[in-house]
UniProtKB/TrEMBL annotation:
Coiled-coil regions listed: 36-63
Name used for this protein in its record: Uncharacterized protein
Region (Disordered): 69-88
Swiss-Prot/TrEMBL keywords: Coiled coil
Domain of life of the native organism: Eukaryota
Organism expressing this protein natively: Florenciella parvula
């Protein structure tokens, strides 16, 4: 009976040691996976914030362009008190091309010129 109990004790100890060794081998991989997931999540969050910032900036540019184009069309007084016809036609074309260059996605359209006259 003593030999049987001693054998069971040895077997239980060996099983426990084997489990601990397996756990020690797998633990770094498990931690690596958790770190990788955390980094991926943070990267997605940063990308999302950047997209929102770009969209917000593009909307502000569109508003500004529409405001300037409106004053160029109306020929009325501008905020600086300049008289009628203060925006010359070439500048007005450039301003409108800037508005067209910034698309709804917030990115500039291919071939669009942000400086000078629009591409033909």
């Amino acid at each position: 009976a003593r030999i049987l109990l001693a054998a069971q004790d040895i077997i239980a100890r060996k099983k426990k040691e084997k489990k601990e060794r397996a756990k020690a081998r797998f633990l770094p991989r498990l931690l690596g996976m958790k770190v990788k997931k955390a980094v991926e999540h943070a990267a997605e969050e940063v990308e999302h914030e950047a997209e929102r910032a770009i969209e917000h900036a593009a909307e502000e540019v569109r508003k500004s362009v529409a405001h300037v184009a409106h004053h160029a069309d109306s020929g009325g007084e501008t905020r600086g008190g300049q008289a009628k016809g203060a925006v010359v036609p070439k500048a007005r074309t450039s301003i409108l091309s800037l508005g067209a260059a910034v698309g709804s996605s917030g990115k500039t359209e291919p071939g669009a010129s942000l400086v000078g006259s629009p591409k033909t």
